[in-house]
Amino acid sequence: MAKRNPRSKSKSRTSLPGEPxxxxxxxxxxSWLAFNRRVLEQAxxxxxxxxxxxxxxxxxxxxxxxxxEIRVAxxxxxxxxxxxxxxxxxxxxxxxxxxxxxxxxxxxxxxxRCWQEQLVPALAAENIQFRSGAELSEGxxxxxxxxxxxxxxxxxxxxxLDQSHPFPQLGNKTLNVAVSLDNPETPENEKLVAILPxxxxxxxxxxxxxxxxGPQRFIFLSEIIKLCAGDLFPGYRLNGAYSFRVxxxxxxxxxxxxxxxxLKKIEExxxxxxxxxxxxxxxxxxxxxxxxxxxxEHLELSHEYVFRLNGPLNLLRLMSLADLDRPDLKYPPxxxxxxxxLHENVNHFDLIQGRDVLLFHPYESFEPVVQLVQQAAExxxxxxxxxxxxxxxGDSPVVRALIEASRNGKQVTALVxxxxxxxxxxxxxxxxxxxxxxxxxxxxxxxxxxxxxVCLVVRREGRHMRHxxxxxxxxxxxxxxxxxxxxxxxxxxxxxxxxxxxxFNALTGFGRSPVFRHLLVAPYNLHRRINELIRREARHAMAxxxxxxxxxxxxxxxxxxxxxxxxxxxxxxxxxxxxxxxxCLVPGVRGLSENIRVRSLVGxxxxxxxxxxxxxxAGGQPQLFAGSADxxxxxxxxxxxxxxxxxxxxLRRRILRHLLPAELRDNVNARVLHGNGAYLPPxxxxxxxxxxxxxHFIADARARAARLRQLPVAVPTAEK
Length: 720
Description:
Elements: H1 28-44, H2 50-80, H3 93-125, E1 128-130, H4 138-152, E2 159-161, E3 175-182, E4 192-197, E5 205-207, E6 216-220, H5 221-228, E7 237-248, H6 262-272, E8 278-284, H7 289-299, E9 306-309, H8 348-354, E10 357-361, H9 367-378, E11 382-389, H10 397-407, E12 411-416, H11 424-436, E13 440-442, E14 449-450, E15 453-461, E16 464-472, E17 484-491, H12 494-508, E18 520-522, H13 526-542, E19 548-553, H14 559-571, E20 574-579, E21 596-601, E22 606-607, E23 610-614, E24 623-627, H15 633-637, E25 639-645, H16 649-665, E26 670-673, E27 679-680, H17 693-709
Parallel strand pairs: 1-6, 8-9, 11-12, 12-13, 14-25, 17-22, 19-20, 20-21
Antiparallel strand pairs: 2-4, 3-4, 3-7, 5-6, 7-8, 10-17, 11-15, 15-16, 16-17, 18-25, 19-23, 21-26, 23-24, 24-25, 26-27
Helix pairs in contact: 1-2, 1-3, 2-3, 4-5, 9-10, 13-14
């Protein structure tokens, strides 16, 4: 982690009168790498079942891919373009790259040490074995050669490197094998080089002789190709074969002001991504020097962006092991429960009309969210549905319901965020399907991603129109709703649904400065209101009154907001931050942040819900919000985000007495951030037992579902 820069000239405008200005910030990129280190710790920990540890290791590698594709690529562009301005932590782009290289090199070493020294032996002890080419028995070798001839050889295309064969355009994150060849009839060592690009269609992890009984045996496809590569070069001597992988800049650049058709422009840029500049080369550690230099030269990569790996490339491919039928090596099964009054046999609109409903995923089923859209599609009283879509699943029931609603004659509007990173192609597909069904598809405001999670239903009830809303912290994706912790809030409160209607009008029409009275909406009022709420807590603390802030979110990066939190801490506000990933705030510094505690939870589920508690308000009641926004500049100023107040007393109690306290009590999944940048397990008092928030929420959801099954279904009819 980056250290404090005591000589930083950055000044906070939120300091208290008469107090010296102090600044302290962790570097964003190094903080993200610290998060990935916490994911690696899960792979190293024996408290997780073995195949779950393998999945954590695969996630680490997937995270690093994205880090290089986007964050490192951006820093390299800054250096190349001569940008000298440091980030607010005081580090310039070149210095950040230097530190990133050091941290990543150590992280990658530990990833492969975990694989080779911990997971491979543990898997072997469970009769799941991995073979290298040198370890194959005679029978296994014969099977591998037959597999190569039948399944691999027909789709490989050898590409020579010489004066008449230019260096090929290698796809981003694709597997390639470089081979060193000689003509056996000539005395000199010619060191000929050829490349074998491996099509993505081929499985990277191959089950060896899968029909045979005994231990399950696997071999990586790269090992098979290296063993048999000589078959592709008859008449030449194979001196060595080495798998490698190139990571390229994958950040889409879209000038929305100039793009006549945003959808077509993004499609064009997606086709260009495979030609993005190389930002990382991964290659086997024992590669020949002349091959190493040839690749670096043609890829225009200096050696600090090259990682020699002591093991198979792209450990993300280990994720396929999760499909093995070994329940004894996985988490005990848990299916999200039906613990709310919303279910398929209840009219959602009748129920929501009388009460707000809160769901906590993945402990509670995501089905009521899908059912709301499905019921709206079929209900003859529903006239219109308005829906945001940031990321959704491959066979989305929400998209199908919107299409059905349009076919049923309802007015359906979908705000599809085409620029959701790495989901651009999927979202283009959804946009086209929706348009073909007659749905009004729009792409939000120019220069802003639509990241908020809002569904609004307009329903005629007698002589009146009533609005119903679903407001969430997570995407409309049933698949990730089983893996991410998120909140879903259903309401018919006119103050909230009215603001939601204003939001959709601003996004689909023209609205330079819409007014939101109850929702906090970026880029309009969110940043200003959050900082006002923090300053209000500080004023209460200075006046000797109780003051408290609890925040749960993914990332804390925005400098102005961090400065506000520092100011509040100096004023005496007690602040708890539950930040899963990046945190640029330095906690526990005397005279600056001694009243701030920061913890991160990494475990079975991905912490994704955003919750914000401020003890004081103009009306005297603590304020509680949830929504889609982290505290980052992009969320405050470059995205459409929504935070919504939770007003139903019973639902507020559930969050404030059960959800947040459990996460603050966790001493299993939690790591506490210290002022030196280290994330350490929280200390336990003598006799204190282990407590996992994830396990607690699973048990609580099951108990709530059991109680619900014993109660008669009652549909309230009271008006709001």
